Amino acid sequence: MNKTDIEWADMTWNPVTGCRHECDYCYARRIAERFSTADQCHTFMGGSPYIHVLSNGESIEIHELEEPATIELDKRGKPFPFGFSPTLHEYRLEEPQHRKKPKTIFVCSMADLFGAWVPDKWIEKVFKACKEAPQHRYLFLTKNPVRYLELDKAALLPHADNFWYGSTVADTNAKAMYVNPNAANKLKAFWSMEPLLERVNVSKCLGIVNWIILGAMTGPGSAQRQPKREWIEEIVKAADGASIPVFMKDSLIPIIGEENMRRDFPWGAAND
Ligand code: SF4
What we know:
This protein is of the alpha/beta class. The protein has five helices and 14 strands. It has a domain of about 130 residues. It is globular and about 55 Å long. The chain binds iron/sulfur cluster (SF4).
């Protein structure tokens, strides 16, 4: 686990890395590919690539590592040995247990743990690791919220106050606009509207999410893709009307002004 600059979490934890979505604003892909050692000779300690067949019949290569991957003569573990290719890092699963002080943990900041390509057994292993360290609050985030429903239907989705299920809503095409993971039960749910790329009517989320995170695109190409002030104000007004707390990332300060920033957590102060 690592401390993070992400303002709404204390730490990130990446037992799974890699993602097959192709978001053009993805920072995780840039980092993973920059530090990829896929073209170098690896010493795989107890793991090797295997072919995973998806429900649509497509075959993809995924990886499972029981120990950190190393390169000959360099025994330091490589964080992204396969770049952005889906990888389970088994050796990271116990990390939450080793941290006794309660933390808010963003699970899989370098992956989409609920992507259609992720085997159920990987997700089950991550959930099991979370349950074995119940002192923490776990924040999950996906662009594929239908997987929450599928897992729930299979009785694989934990219902617990310290499990928060997030969906990314960057624009009106987001799947969360059409899928309500909270339909049949009372999960802790949130929308991460970051990067907010167009005006989004949040009326669909009122009553089904417990929290909204707002932020602007950062990094290369972001100058032309900043949210408009009125988009943010509309969301905040609607959220206020429904008593949904709003957390604005610092990327919004130049747009909305520090005096108008909201940094609300649904569980109270940041580390409550
Ligand atoms: S879902 Fe997240 S990790 Fe995957 S490509 Fe998009 S931004 Fe990157």
